[in-house]
Write a structure and sequence with these properties.
CATH architecture: Sandwich
Largest sheet: 8 strands, antiparallel
Shape: globular
Number of domains: 1
Distance between the termini: 51 Å
Helix content: 10-25%
Number of strands: 15
Strand content: 35-45%
CATH topology: Jelly Rolls
Order of helices and strands: HHEEEEHEEEEEHHEEEEEE
CATH class: Mainly Beta
Structural class: alpha+beta
Length: about 250
């Protein structure tokens, strides 16, 4: 029988327990924060272009395929169906945020229209230099896992991207030090998707990002990029189909 060192056993127990911590970050936002944006989508969209969703939303990809509807407001639900192949990019829909600490609480559902439905949501600062497209940090839900990732000091950092791309051009492996760095910039935990409605909270507090579903903390990670002082945009990145029913953005500081 394999016997693990006591220290390693304790480490594994702590990691598992922290991933299942019953912390209610939605309540933390309500108690500590100020509500700076709310949208229940109780209206009709106005066409297919970048600002068609209304209420300050903007789609960075809609104008690429103006003949295809990627965002449909239907009975208070934002139904996103990305034309990723036609647009050459997943649907990217964002709204002004503006906070250091805080987060978003949304209701979402994978409608079961595609086998690989996923949802990426997080923060962008297009005024930030040295980072590709200002991508800061995200929570990513796939059909089998949840990932938290720091892009600011990870792969979206232009120097890191350059080193990776130069290695790929030479058909070489990513440099060992860069690979080791990138591994520290994210964490993934198993999660099984379904087709029910859920409440999701994604928050940043200092250098920590946390993601909860239905009041249960499922993933948290520390990385310096999470502490970026100005998270200007809250954004969704959707490869195929997902439904959003309600969005609230809170600022703690």
């Amino acid at each position: 029988m394999l016997r693990l060192p006591i220290a390693l056993c304790c480490s594994l127990i702590v990691s598992y327990a922290s991933a299942a911590e019953p912390r209610d970050d939605a309540a933390w936002l309500r108690e500590k924060g100020a509500l700076i944006f709310h949208d229940a989508f109780e209206r009709e969209e106005n066409g297919n272009l970048a600002k068609a969703i209304g209420n300050g939303w903007n789609s960075a990809t809609a104008d690429r395929v103006p003949h295809i509807k990627m965002a449909d407001l239907d009975e208070g639900i934002l139904k996103i169906a990305s034309a990723s192949k036609e647009a050459g990019h997943a649907a990217h829909i964002h709204h002004e945020a503006g906070c250091t600490d805080g987060g978003a609480v949304i209701r979402f559902k994978f409608p079961g229209l595609n086998k690989s439905e996923s949802l990426q949501l997080g923060y962008v600062d297009r005024e930030l230099k040295g980072v590709h497209a200002g991508h800061l940090c995200y929570g990513i839900l796939s059909q089998s896992s949840i990932t938290l990732i720091d892009h600011k000091t990870g792969i979206m950092n232009l120097e890191n991207r350059k080193r990776r791309d130069e290695a790929a051009a030479r058909k070489e492996k990513v440099p060992a030090d860069l690979e080791a760095l990138l591994k520290t910039k994210q964490t993934s935990v198993p999660w099984k998707a379904d087709i029910r409605w859920h409440e999701l909270a994604l928050v940043t507090e200092g250098d920590e990002m946390r993601l909860s579903i239905d009041g249960k903390l499922l993933a948290k990670h520390r990385s310096e990029g999470f502490a970026h002082p100005m998270k200007r945009w809250f954004s969704f990145l959707v490869n195929n189909t997902v439904w959003i029913d309600d969005v609230k953005i809170w600022k703690v500081r």
